[in-house]
């Protein structure tokens, strides 16, 4: 009996949809590894730091995607974890601890701990209340950051230098890019293993029907809390990298506007698709960069784009692949064609 | 006489001022098909939810094989062997039959917190899923999307999901709900075939089915059991007839 | 000290009542239409900007206020017809995103029309002075008293509307069980439009009234949106009484709580730390109160759905 959970299936159900094949992943990894070298040889160092930014926000969006897309937890407070990661690094740097191997794990740990605490309380609520309570928690951290002098108040905390790794100079754009590349890359491998594991499958199934999953014996609350905590920890990692990239953090990282932007990235890319957060962050930042060069009203364009996506293409860019396939009449996407073939099967009974 | 597998002792559930389960006592013997009947609003669904762990009880005790499970969460009760099915079909409609059943098997075998484990070897899940599918007659439809199946087949899968959890005590909430006579008969045969391996609590409105299938019947009125016994005893119990008269005449007729 | 607290209590009452104007509309839209409207604060901002524009044009406060309310209500109707009607029945995630988009669009449009500089609304000359409430001890600005008076009148008006009129009955039916209300023959679509227009008008009223006290600026909507959401969650979504009690509670915590916390902290830590920590803790207390309410009474203090 061939395992039907393998990647070679004709119909993709939500358990498998959007999981990348190995070749896609390798191709992306290679391109991203070569990218800064190409830019460097062309003398376009600005695009190297832009690349770092894309990778970092891709990680942040993918972290949110784990909770939002896979787990169905609509968190409007993920900026808090981004900010906690950033502030952890900046505070450590201020007190003289600049070794990356201490600062980054501490940042991840703080963010994960906060996510565990926030999740433990928030996951007892449902629907709109969950959205509101995650928002309120993020606001708590925002108020804390703007008013505690130790946190730099409105100005935030600048860093005099990036975290230190013996042997790898992070001050240059190229060195820092590869630091981000390997750190985020590791996180993406972890994320991939997560969503394709039995844990990930249970998480998606809980999103599909929580009551059923509880009735067949899944500890639903604990599974969701675990996903939320991991999601927060990974967002914290992105925050730590972001603070290093921009040499400091400001309370703006913690605003609910930032949480909204992360959510927008996930939706643009495709929530619940492995590449969703990455694609979304890349498209978002590229659009922002190009459009801002022509007009100062980027937010107007973004707003219009977002409205269009919500009203017309709510599954994001990653779903376009299947839509196109369905249009071309090739592999069905578990949609209309699968249904008709099943209808035929029913009749044949 | 076999030992009770489940004992419900003075169980209470309140919703605000309303007492839905009112000092309910019930005893289920190992290996029997025990029907739970009662007029609408008698609290059957509430009691079932308390037994499965979906609703917390306000007071009283539930003993499973002599051990107190009153405070156990749902997933621990499933691990103990108490599994329910739903009156309103509650499946994962966008997934295939195989995926639905495999999820139920996965819950039993654990590993759901195994983040990094490889998913290459699914043979254990496949075996369990196929075994459950065979029991409920869905083996030919394993790769079909659940949402596209007929209502009767979804009802069968509803039962299959519970079976895939390898329950010792099965709580069936109106398994015949919404099925046509033919599907209903099939479901009856299926339930009949389960009695060798499982103990069953059957909540059902179809009185024909109840009296055909049940070894014993308990009658729930206003949140507590007013009578328990063999189907024949229950049929002729004046209290039961009184409870049903005027409430639902067709039900009374069916009982006679 | 007593008069200081009393003055802050009046400020709290004034802030709370203005929050109530926003929360009332938000809670109705939330409760009746089951719609998360993040852009509710944008209507408040739009109302304030329109009031400022009309004020510059007319040079007079009350006509500007009146026109701003009408215009914002119209914008509300248009938005309801074009967008919100479609969002109803969509997932909460879609609603969050679409109304987030609306915030971005509103902020940017206002920036394009009015520029990035804050605008000013002059308060009516007759109300610009203080009123002596307690001889020689407590003076309070007349204009703020006007705000309190208007807030109270609107609160009473809304109470009468919701509890004593046919439309109000429909609203309550809609908030407690929309399907049932539709079955019972409540014409739900015109009701939505009405509720939305009413919510927008209340936003404009709050925005215009606060205009002379605050700078009318882009982003003012977002800063009041969070407290407004906290109010309706604390009070219970869909509940008018909850919105009122929640607003006053939040208003009092923010002002009196701030004063008392700062004062109390001065006993423990040095003055400057206390001065920064007090307001922080007060803001955090509102969020914490909401978290506590959600945790212990998830339906809010005055649940609309029974």
Automatic annotation (TrEMBL), chain A:
Gene Ontology CC annotations of this record: plasma membrane
Classify the protein's membrane topology as the record does.
Answer: Multi-pass membrane protein
Q: What Pfam families does this protein map onto?
A: BPD_transp_2
Q: Where in the cell is it found?
A: Cell membrane
| Transmembrane feature ranges | 12-35, 47-68, 75-93, 99-121, 128-146, 176-195, 225-249, 261-287, 299-320
- Please tell me where this protein is predominantly located: membrane
Q: Which UniProt keywords apply?
A: Cell membrane, Membrane, Transmembrane, Transmembrane helix
User: What GO molecular functions are on record for this protein?
Assistant: branched-chain amino acid transmembrane transporter activity
Keyword Membrane: yes or no? yes
InterPro entries for the chain: ABC_transp_permease, LivM-like
What is this protein called in UniProt? Branched-chain amino acid ABC transporter permease
Q: Lineage, please?
A: Bacteria, Pseudomonadati, Pseudomonadota, Betaproteobacteria, Rhodocyclales
From TrEMBL, chain B:
Q: Name one GO cellular component term.
A: plasma membrane
The reply on keyword Transport is: yes
Q: Name one GO molecular function term.
A: ATP hydrolysis activity
* Ranges where the ABC transporter domain occurs: 6-247
| Keywords, sorted A to Z | ATP-binding, Cell membrane, Membrane, Nucleotide-binding, Transport
Q: Name one Pfam family in it.
A: BCA_ABC_TP_C
The superkingdom of the source organism is Bacteria
Tell me the PANTHER family matching this sequence. Answer: ABC TRANSPORTER ATP-BINDING PROTEIN, CONSERVED COMPONENT OF ABC TRANSPORTER FOR NATURAL AMINO ACIDS-RELATED
Please report the name of this protein according to its UniProt entry: ABC transporter ATP-binding protein
TrEMBL record, chain C:
> What keywords would UniProt list here?
Amino-acid transport, Cell membrane, Membrane, Transmembrane, Transmembrane helix, Transport
Xref: Pfam families: BPD_transp_2 (PF02653)
| Transmembrane feature ranges | 12-31, 38-58, 64-84, 96-121, 141-162, 191-210, 277-296
Q: Which InterPro entries match?
A: ABC_transp_permease, BCAA_transport_permease
What membrane topology was assigned to this protein in its record?
Multi-pass membrane protein
Q: Where in the cell is it found?
A: Cell membrane
Supply one GO molecular-function term: transmembrane transporter activity
Q: Which GO terms describe its biological process?
A: amino acid transport
From what superkingdom does this record's organism come? Bacteria
GO CC annotation terms, alphabetical: plasma membrane
Family named by the database record = Belongs to the binding-protein-dependent transport system permease family. LivHM subfamily.
Name this protein carries in UniProt: Branched-chain amino acid ABC transporter permease
């Amino acid at each position: 009996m061939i395992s039907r959970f393998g990647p070679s299936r004709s119909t993709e159900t939500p358990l498998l949809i959007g999981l990348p094949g190995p070749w896609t992943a390798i191709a992306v990894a290679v391109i991203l590894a070569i990218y800064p070298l190409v830019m460097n040889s062309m003398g376009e160092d600005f695009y190297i730091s832009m690349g770092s930014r894309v990778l970092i926000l891709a990680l942040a969006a993918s972290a949110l995607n784990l909770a939002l897309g896979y787990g169905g937890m609509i968190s409007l407070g993920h900026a808090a974890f981004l900010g906690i990661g950033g502030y952890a690094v900046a505070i450590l740097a201020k007190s003289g601890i600049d070794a990356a191997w201490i600062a980054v794990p501490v940042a991840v740990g703080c963010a994960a701990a906060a996510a565990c605490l926030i999740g433990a309380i928030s996951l007892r609520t449902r629907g709109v209340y969950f959205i509101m309570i995650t928002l309120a928690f993020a606001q708590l951290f925002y108020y804390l950051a703007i008013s505690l002098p130790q946190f730099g108040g409105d100005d935030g905390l600048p860093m005099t230098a990036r975290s230190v790794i013996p042997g790898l100079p992070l001050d240059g754009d190229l060195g820092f890019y590869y630091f981000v590349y390997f750190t985020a890359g590791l996180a993406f491998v972890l994320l991939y293993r997560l969503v394709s594991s039995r844990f990930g499958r249970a998480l998606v199934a809980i999103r599909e029907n929580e009551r059923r999953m509880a009735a067949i014996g899944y500890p639903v609350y604990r599974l969701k809390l675990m996903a939320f905590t991991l999601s927060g920890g990974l967002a914290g990692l992105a925050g730590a990298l972001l603070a290093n990239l921009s040499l400091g953090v400001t309370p703006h990282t913690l605003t609910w506007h930032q949480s909204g932007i992360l959510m927008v990235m996930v939706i643009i890319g495709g929530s619940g698709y492995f590449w969703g957060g990455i694609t979304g962050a890349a498209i978002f930042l590229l659009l922002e960069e190009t459009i801002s060069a022509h007009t100062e009203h980027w937010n107007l364009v973004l707003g219009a784009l977002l409205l269009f996506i919500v009203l017309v293409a709510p599954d994001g860019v990653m779903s376009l692949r299947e839509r196109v396939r369905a249009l071309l009449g090739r592999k069905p996407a578990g949609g209309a064609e699968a249904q008709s073939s099943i209808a035929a099967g029913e009749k044949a009974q | 006489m076999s030992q009770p597998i489940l004992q419900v002792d003075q169980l209470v559930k309140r919703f605000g001022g309303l007492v839905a389960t009112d000092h309910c006592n019930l005893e289920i013997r190992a290996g029997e098909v025990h029907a739970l009947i009662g007029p609408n609003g008698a609290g059957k669904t509430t009691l079932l939810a308390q037994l499965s762990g979906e609703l917390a009880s306000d007071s009283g005790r539930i003993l499973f094989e002599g051990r107190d499970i009153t405070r156990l969460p749902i997933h621990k009760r499933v691990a103990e062997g108490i599994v329910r099915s739903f009156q309103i079909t509650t499946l994962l409609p966008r997934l295939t039959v195989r995926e639905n059943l495999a999820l139920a098997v996965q819950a039993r075998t654990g590993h759901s917190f195994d983040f990094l484990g490889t998913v290459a070897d699914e043979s254990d899940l496949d075996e369990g899923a196929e075994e459950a599918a065979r029991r409920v007659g869905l083996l030919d439809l394993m790769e079909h999307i659940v949402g596209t199946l007929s209502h009767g087949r979804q009802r069968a899968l509803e039962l299959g999901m519970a079976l895939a959890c390898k329950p010792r005590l099965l709580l069936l909430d109106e398994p015949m709900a919404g099925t046509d006579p033919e599907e209903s008969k099939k479901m009856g045969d299926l339930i009949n075939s389960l009695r060798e391996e499982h103990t069953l609590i059957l909540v059902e409105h179809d009185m024909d089915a109840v009296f055909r299938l049940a070894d014993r019947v308990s009658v729930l009125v206003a949140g507590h059991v007013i009578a328990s016994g063999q189907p024949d005893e229950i049929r002729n119990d004046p209290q039961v007839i009184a409870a049903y008269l005027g409430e639902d005449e067709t039900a009374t007729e069916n009982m006679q | 000290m007593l008069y200081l607290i009393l003055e802050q209590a009046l400020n709290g009452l004034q802030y709370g009542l203005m929050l109530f104007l926003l929360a009332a509309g938000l809670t109705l839209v939330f409760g009746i239409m089951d719609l998360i409207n993040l852009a509710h604060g944008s209507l408040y901002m739009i109302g304030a900007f329109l009031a400022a524009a009309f004020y510059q044009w007319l040079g007079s406060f009350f006509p500007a206020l009146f026109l701003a309310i009408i215009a914002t209500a119209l914008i509300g109707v248009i938005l309801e017809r074009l967008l919100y009607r479609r969002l109803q029945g969509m997932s909460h995630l879609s609603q969050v995103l679409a109304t987030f988009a609306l915030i971005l669009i509103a902020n940017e449009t206002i920036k394009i029309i009015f520029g990035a500089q804050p605008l000013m609304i002059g308060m009516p000359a007759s109300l610009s002075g203080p009123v002596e409430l307690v001889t020689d001890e407590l003076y309070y600005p007349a204009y703020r008293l006007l705000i309190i008076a208007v807030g109270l009148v609107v609160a009473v008006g809304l109470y009468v509307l919701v509890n004593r009129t046919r439309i109000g009955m429909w609203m309550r039916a809609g908030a407690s069980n929309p399907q049932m209300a539709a079955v019972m023959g409540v014409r739900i679509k015109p009701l939505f439009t009405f509720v939305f227009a009413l919510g927008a008008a209340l936003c404009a009223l709050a925005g215009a009234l606060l205009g002379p006290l605050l700078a009318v600026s882009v982003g003012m909507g977002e800063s009041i949106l969070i407290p407004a959401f906290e109010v309706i969650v604390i009070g219970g979504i869909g509940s008018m009484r909850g919105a009122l009690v929640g607003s006053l509670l939040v208003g009092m915590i923010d002002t009196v709580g701030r004063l008392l916390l700062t004062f109390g902290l001065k006993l423990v830590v040095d003055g400057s730390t206390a001065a920064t920590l007090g307001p922080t803790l007060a803001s955090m207390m509102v969020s914490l109160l909401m978290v506590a309410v959600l945790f212990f009474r998830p339906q809010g203090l005055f649940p609309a759905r029974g």
